[in-house]
Structure formats: structure tokens, C-alpha cells
Design a protein that fits this description.
This is DUF982 domain-containing protein. With 88 residues, the chain is of the alpha+beta class. The protein has a domain of 52 residues. It contains 3 helices and 3 strands; from the N terminus they run ββαααβ.
Length: 88
């Protein structure tokens, strides 16, 4: 299990409605915490798909990039603005 997988994971900044107002997700561990603790709603179809994809990515069954796509869909479903972070 690789909770800190970052090699294929593009960091994403999230704009939330509560506290904290902004969050940067850099690793699968960050994403898991966000989905389980700070997500505004846990009943959407894309949310459930993202949680499963997170577990699959942590266990190595899918790539972090495949999870990232599911995570962004869940963010869109929940009305969370997501910005890709580019490092130079």
C-alpha cells in the first residue's frame, strides 16, 4: 500500500465552503482523508466511485492518475471547485 504515491498524481487545489476554505491534495493519503473527513456529501454516485478508486489506487490495483479522474468527477458532483496545481 502506498498512501503517499505522488509520481503520477497531479496535485489539486480545492475550494471548500467551510473550514478550511482551501485544501491542496498532493497524495493518495491526502485524498483519502479529504473524502472520508472533509467531503461535504457522502451520498453521490461519483463520491462512492472516488472512494472505491482511492482504495484501489492505494492498493495498487489502478494508477493514481486513474483515481485522480474519479476524484475530480466527485468534486464536480459536490460543487467543489478544483484547480490543477502546476509546478515549475
Amino acid at each position: 500500500m502506498d498512501w503517499d504515491a505522488t509520481s503520477a498524481f497531479t496535485p489539486v487545489g480545492l475550494a471548500l465552503r467551510g473550514q478550511p476554505a482551501h485544501r491542496i491534495v498532493r497524495t493518495l493519503g491526502d485524498a483519502a482523508y479529504m473524502l472520508l473527513k472533509d467531503w461535504p456529501s457522502d451520498d453521490g454516485e461519483e463520491y462512492v466511485t472516488a472512494v472505491k478508486a482511492c482504495v484501489d489506487a492505494i492498493s495498487g490495483e489502478i494508477t493514481p492518475q486513474q483515481f485522480w479522474v474519479a476524484f475530480l468527477r466527485a468534486a464536480d458532483e459536490a460543487g467543489i471547485a478544483a484547480l490543477t496545481i502546476v509546478h515549475r
